[in-house]
Amino acid sequence: MSNDPEILRRALRRLPEPEPRPGFVDQALARAAHAHRPVAPRSQRTPRRAGFLARWETWFGAAVGGAVAATLTAVLLRPVVQNESQPLGIALALHETRDIDVLIDSERVLKDATIHISASGAVALDGFENDHEIDWHADLERGSNLLSLPVVARSAGKGQLVAVIEHDGRSRRVTIALTVLDTAVSRT
After folding, report:
1. How far is CA 120 from CA 32, 146, 160, in A?
2. Could you give the residue ranges of the DSSP H alpha helices within 36-161?
3. Which domain holds residue 119?
4. 150 and 101, same structural domain?
5. pTM higher than 0.70 for the full model?
6. Which of residues 2 and 51 earns the better pLDDT score?
7. How many domains does one find in the chain?
8. pLDDT tens profile 46-57
9. With 0-12 CB in 10 A as exposed, 13-18 as middle and 19+ as buried, what is 176?
């Protein structure tokens, strides 16, 4: 190999030129255009803040940010809605009898659905104190169906009311947690 610079230059000229990386040309042109932008004298320049506030993007961003903040506030501060996996909680006084409403939402009419109710713990179904479970068949309408179940508080402590609706091999379960408070004990 020769160390002659002229031979080396000719050899380098015969090599193919490498392709620029993606975006290189756009970046180079943008930098060149920015570098040659005329600068207004200081007395004619608008303050940076005034220019920032005059742009539509600023106000669009503020509107989007406000909408996001309002949505988050509404989601975080809304009342907690219980679903089927979370039992609802109701407090009763000892020996109190109260109708407990169970709302069943149905997507369609359910003809001859089986309704299975069980009461356990400190509560019983009024009129069925010796039976912890009762079943019957009924037609449920499409939409909201309200079951009003008479419950009696038998002893202080926790209790549970479970309603299971079965139709065509499908079932829906609603669990209501009940707490029976002994008002005589709480007064002392």
Report:
1. 80, 21, 5
2. 48-54, 56-77
3. 88-187
4. yes
5. no
6. 51
7. 2
8. 566 667 677 788
9. buried
